[in-house]
Amino acid sequence: MTLAVWLAKRLLWAGVTLLGVTLLTFLVVYRMPADPATLLAGRNATPELLAAVRAKHQLDQPVPVQYLAYVGRLARGDLGRSYRGEPVAQEIARRLPLTIQLALAGWLSWLVLGTLFGAWVAARPGPVREGTLLFFSILGVSTPTFWVGILLLYVFVSQLRMFPAGGSGTPQHLVLPVATLAVSGVAYYARLVHSGLGGALREDYVRTAVAKGAPGRTVLFRHALRNALLPLVTVAGSDLAALLGGVVFTESVFHWEGMGMLAVRAVGELDIPLILGVVLVSATFVVLANLLVDLIYPLLDPRVRLQ
Amino acid sequence: MMKNTSMHRLPRWPAMAMLALLLPLAGCGGSPSGGAGGGGGSAAGGKTLTVATAEDVQSLDPGSAYDTWSTTVVHAFTRRLVDWDETGKLVPDLAERWEASADGKTYTFHLRSDAKFSDGTAVEAGHFKAALDRVRDPKTASKGMGFYSGITSVEAPDATTLVVKLKAADPLLPQVMGLTFAAPIKTPHDPQRPASSGPYALQSTSPIVLTKNPHDTRNTSTLERITVQTGVDEALQMTRFQTGEVDLLPGIPVADYARVMEDPVERARVVQEPVNQTWYFGMNVTRPPWSNPKVRRAALLAMNRQAHVELAGAGRLANGILPPRVPGHHTGRALPAQNVAEAKRLLAEAGFPNGLPATMRSVMWLSNSTQYKDHGQAIQSDLAAVGIPVELRPVALSQYLKGYRDNADCWYGGWYPDFPDAGNFLEPVLHSRGIGSNNAARYRNPKVDQLLDRAHGMAAGPERDALYRQAEDLILQDLPWIPLYFEVETRYFREGVSGVKVHPVWRQMLTGIDKR
Questions:
Q1: The domain containing residue A41 runs over which residues?
Q2: Helix, strand or coil for residue A133?
Q3: Which of B:446-505 have CB within 8 Å of A?
Q4: What is the domain-level CATH number for residue B215?
Q5: Distance between B126 CA and the closest CA of chain A, angstroms
């Protein structure tokens, strides 16, 4: 199978998956025991107003009709308007660059720092290094993101005045949110690399490389790490997709107005077009990330073929 | 499984590289520059006041703004025919005066001739007509539609005269003209960029920036600009307040409350005043066990209501349903204090000497915020102590707002009027007409209905207040609600900021504030 055919098939399936996602989201939203019309009509709603609100937002139509209308608009590239009146695509377009910034920076911190940390431990295993890894792993897994964020704000903003107090726009604004993300992810990646490297370093080809006199650094990074990276690629791919969908807590703590804050608002206000838009964009990232991972895999391991 | 000795020769550089990556990050601090909008007085010329809130602003279109912060901002960039002063009294604003016809069905408003939009054009009667026609049009689906449903027509015979005709006499008409829904709009009206007729002009919506309206001669503040930061987490609000980026907070975060209130210097920069909101425990009087008046009475006696005042941080023990700044509020009344023995005796009288059986457990609806849950748990444990089992159902706000009105057993909630008027407070929630919408207790007392109807059409004054007091007394006898506490709101501002108030109608108010 040529790459083009493979890609075409995969893209087709991606389309089907995304359509499924919209259907599922639609069903979930409409099964919720809350009514967007009551929210939109305000607390003093009269029956006439409720009817007017339903008519305005087509909430008076049967759900299948609403869904088909949505899919029809979607096919024309129209994500509809949020209940606040702004086109959903426009709201997302405003937020997405910020989320991409934060997601990429956070993701890179996990990859780079995690790999280095893992390699550092695997290079010379011992109680000190392994203990350090264990300590940071437990810390990373067990401390809630928002707490880390608040702590960093307190130390680096309130006390030391080193960084801006939340918001976005300059590289300085990025430091604390990325550091918050790093706390939660770096140790996990380090463990992945550590266990992968630990296995790889015991392989025959590593022994051969060492025996033929290759320097330690070459052995570690060229021979062993390449194999240890395979599981990392899968995890990193889906993590990047998840990060691009918005990092709710980190964004909220630092008032980073990305997709995460938009998602919270959409759900809080039961803004159905906006919820659908946000979910669709996040799902697209997941689908694309999986596609990308499948494309990268053969490059790292020639035994893997696209099929 | 041999240990690879060559590993000892491995370089230390991964660790050093990690440090190298971290160091520049730590070093690039520099000066703390603001987030959205910036703060202090450093922005391009003139003084800026920066306010931060955790809440969102849902809409700045006068036709749809209805949540607290949306109306606060719309209030700052519009003027309406009338407004309310600091005591909650209706006062003229863009209307110099108004009169009602003898039958009370026609109101004529006479406008000031010097009112101007921020672009310098005159505000005329036609702009009010445009706003009212738009809000009344079902196609707009405005949250304010209900307030103006009694209007049959709005005419603007000349630039300074507005004639409003009603189906039936309604002395509350001038009041609804003060709401932001009735702010003048230009046609064609762009909901994303509404015209500014107020002390400030809306310069940008994201972030929200208001600039002084050069054509509003009555705004004496020296502020050039007001920035409103929305959706800012409490911890970040405090951080920004401490770094000077934010000048005014709508409250003090729980974690800092005690520290601020105990420090006399900080305390001097706090304003606390009651707003017209009553927090209460509501019961559906058509469903057992709450359909039994003795069980409701027992619930009242079971409750340590003072505990809710303390849970709220600031608050005032409720002595009735009408909050303190609503005309008709009765200062002399007191509700019985906690009396567990008497509560148990009443339950025994109702046929439950050993408390209610588990099969009669009722579900109590609340929003899943900490505030609701704290109060909900206090109610639950007080009721359990006398033998009334209640199960908490904390759900998302959107679900709660539907759930508690949808034939729920009981709920914890807060209610406030749109303007300081006893009828506006009581009618939606306790008149039988509200059953099916806001009368979630499904409370029906023909005498109460009659009193509320009679008072509604009367002119403000002691006679009208007396009717509301009678109605309130009847309601408190029937007890569909157990009033817990009246909301008290807090503002916290930095040194140099002045004129901060808790307004009885607008709550948050951006106008009237100044900064040194």
A1: 3-75
A2: helix
A3: none
A4: 3.40.190.10
A5: 25
